């Protein structure tokens, strides 16, 4: 027989407002700007303050306007109709145009389409070209196969194509700028770039090396290449110099297809040294707008209304909008205060670095260290440090740059792994490229400089830094 019983379980959950608070903390400045614009558009009681606006001149919303607002009260993007999403998008784009950024560069796709437009392509070639250009990766490579494009055109455009037709159009695109675009791999991209150069002994040697001995070059088997091609060391060195000038990522340097402005690095904080010490500021002045609650909606929400059902409903709606507007303004201000407090703690813990700019002055610092000093959760500090940057007298750094584990030295001193890696990079950068240091030699050199580190640990750091083993770092002069 089944028994029924009541039990009380306590669970911790987040309200919708708390979730929004958390989301606001995660946003870097450019994304916060967009989020504010979205809120202003969807909530008529929230407005951007302007210096020349007299709040007392704000009129009470017209009755018909309120009725329209009641019908269009959508809380999420999923509930917003397409026409309203278009209005939001256009409004955001117009506002982004007013920011103090350089004009967005053309995308790789736009650049290629402009060049294709002046060529005399058949309608079928234009369809194939559009598919190739649309499938290029951010670094300019073509990751899809001809069969995939052929299948797409057959099922979606009812156009039958052949591999030969695909290859013909691909060759046309590969002849455009930037050199190397639409290659399938690095080897092909380098060969395309070399083909565009004027013929010379250096160009011919470089082409032969890439075409016939690409794997040997990647694995630094230089003597094998020299012997196979009958080159002198000087000819090989000249060809290698030319190869290093080629672009391994032809698509780099172009704008993004999806809002390149939002992807630019905008420092969220500014840290400066002055006569009074180190000053920490949020970089939001003139960028993040000041917000107000529309006085007209406030007045309507506070009026005394009796025995008019329609007006009571309108007032209830106005109260909701005013509440949401006030809460959002408070949430933005809370975000500001939380971020500023956390950055002040980070600067206080890493004051030596902000004074000298020397990476060796970085101290071991964990998320927990900042959380304990600010009274926030570790998860909150993690969100704050994600995708945010600080500009100081020595450059722009991601916030995560200042967090690192510590390694205890033989003298009992704990050193940041960041400074250990910096020393490792410096030693490798200044080594003899014809006789690069082995991991054992690197560990010995670092020990002589006061950084005792096991060989296995050094190898791990070397791999994290993207430094190749000694045999692959060797070069011929």
**Which outline best applies?**
flat
Global structural class: alpha+beta
Radius of gyration: 30 Å
Distance between the termini: 88 Å
Q: Percent range for helical residues? A: 40-55%
Largest sheet: 4 strands, mixed
- SSE order, as H and E? HHEHHHHHHHHHHHEEEHHHHHEEEEHHHH
Quaternary: single chain
Give an overview of the whole structure.
22% of the residues are buried. The radius of gyration is 30 Å and the shape is flat. With 477 residues, the protein is α+β, with helices and mostly antiparallel strands. The strands form 3 sheets. A 4-stranded mixed β-sheet has the order 3-2-5-6. Helix 14 packs across helix 15 and helix 20 crosses helix 21.
Short description, anyone?
The protein is an alpha+beta fold. It is built from 22 helices and eight strands.
């Amino acid at each position: 027989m089944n028994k029924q019983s009541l039990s009380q379980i306590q669970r911790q959950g987040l309200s919708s407002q708390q979730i929004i608070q958390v989301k606001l903390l995660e946003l870097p400045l450019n994304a916060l700007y967009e989020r504010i614009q979205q809120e202003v558009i969807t909530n008529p009681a929230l407005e951007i303050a302007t210096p020349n606006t007299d709040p007392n001149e704000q009129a009470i919303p017209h009755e018909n306007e309120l009725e329209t607002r009641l019908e269009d009260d959508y809380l999420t993007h999923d509930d917003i109709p397409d026409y309203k999403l278009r209005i939001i998008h256009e409004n955001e784009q117009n506002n982004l145009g007013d920011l103090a950024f350089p004009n967005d560069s053309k995308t790789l796709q736009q650049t290629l389409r402009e060049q294709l437009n002046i060529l005399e392509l058949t309608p079928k070639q234009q369809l194939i070209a559009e598919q190739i250009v649309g499938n290029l990766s951010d670094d300019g490579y073509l990751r899809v196969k001809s069969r995939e494009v052929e299948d797409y055109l057959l099922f979606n455009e009812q156009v039958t194509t052949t591999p030969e037709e695909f290859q013909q159009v691909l060759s046309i695109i590969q002849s455009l700028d930037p050199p190397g675009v639409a290659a399938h791999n690095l080897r092909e991209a380098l060969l395309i770039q070399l083909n565009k150069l004027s013929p010379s002994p250096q160009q011919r040697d470089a082409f032969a090396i890439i075409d016939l001995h690409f794997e040997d070059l990647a694995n630094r088997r230089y003597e094998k290449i020299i012997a196979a091609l009958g080159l002198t060391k000087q000819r090989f060195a000249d060809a290698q110099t030319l190869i290093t000038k080629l672009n391994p990522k032809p698509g780099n340097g172009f704008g993004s297809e999806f809002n390149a402005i939002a992807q630019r690095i905008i420092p969220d904080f500014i840290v400066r040294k002055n006569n009074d010490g180190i000053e920490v500021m949020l970089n939001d002045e003139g960028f993040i707008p000041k917000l107000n609650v529309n006085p007209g909606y406030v007045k309507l929400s506070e009026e005394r209304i009796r025995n008019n059902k329609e007006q009571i409903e309108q007032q209830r709606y106005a109260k909701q909008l005013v509440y949401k507007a006030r809460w959002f303004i408070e949430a933005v201000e809370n975000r500001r205060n939380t971020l500023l407090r956390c950055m002040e703690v980070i600067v206080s813990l890493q004051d030596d670095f902000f004074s000298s700019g020397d990476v060796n002055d970085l101290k071991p610092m964990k998320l927990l260290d900042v959380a304990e000093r600010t009274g926030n959760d570790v998860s909150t500090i993690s969100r704050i440090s994600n995708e945010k940057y600080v500009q100081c007298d020595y450059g722009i750094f991601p916030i995560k740059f200042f967090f690192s584990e510590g390694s205890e030295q033989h003298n009992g001193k704990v050193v940041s792994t960041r400074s250990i890696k910096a020393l490792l990079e410096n030693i490798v950068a200044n080594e003899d490229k014809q006789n690069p240091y082995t991991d054992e030699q690197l560990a010995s050199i670092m020990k002589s400089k006061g950084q005792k580190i096991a060989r296995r640990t050094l190898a791990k750091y070397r791999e994290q830094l993207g430094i190749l083993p000694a045999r692959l770092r060797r070069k011929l002069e």
